[in-house]
Amino acid sequence: MEGLNNRLKKHMEQLLAKYPVLQNIKKDIIAAYFILEKSYKAGGKLLIAGNGGSAADAEHIAGELMKSFKLPRPIGVELREKLKAIDPEYGMELSQNLECCLTAIPLTAHEALTTAYINDVNAASVFAQQLLGYGRAGDVFLGISTSGNSRNIINAAVTAKALDIKVIGLTGADGGILASAADAAVKVPETETYLIQELHLPIYHCWCLMLEEEFFGSVSCCDKSELIKERY
Prior knowledge:
By secondary structure, this protein is α/β, with parallel strands linked by helices. Helices cover 53% and strands 10% of the residues. It has a 5-stranded parallel β-sheet with strand order 2-1-3-4-5, with helices on both faces. Strand 3 (140-144), helix 8 and strand 4 (166-171) form a beta-alpha-beta unit. Helix 1 (6-18) packs antiparallel against helix 10, helix 2 packs across helix 10 (193-216) and helix 7 runs parallel beside helix 8.
């Protein structure tokens, strides 16, 4: 658990207690977490892609990061007051309902864009095209591929590296090309697609829990605003 504080360590301990099969890849899970943490602290964002069930995972991850997961994430006092000053009625409602987020974009979710690009240009580069548009140096690309060889994920990883975007690969035991291209590769010890996916979910839940704990766990979102570049 090297480098993890006690608040974060508890999440890894819970993960490994429930899924002891992941014990041999804990260093890779932690390494990937620190890539995410560093990016968010520098004002970066997460871009996620996968195919089939992994596409659903991409949207699932964004859902956990873009709103509260387990902990409350109230927006800062300054933004609350601005909202109420603009409109007392709607601003009050927004000030009570808006939550701090860690920006995450699932590249699988833009049907008009992706189908247009697939139809007009090339299916294998569809995620790479979105990375070119959304990505900036210092961001993170999380590629989810049970084989590690999905061509559209590999093309996105190559594009990410060219844009100085860190790459995390979440794969099966083989790792494929994606593991070789990634800055951190998490290769779960299964070879059957559905079994790989069953282990992917608790890993990314653990990442989301640790990120939420780090950014929103001990003080208010307002007090932590410096860590996330005054987004709120």
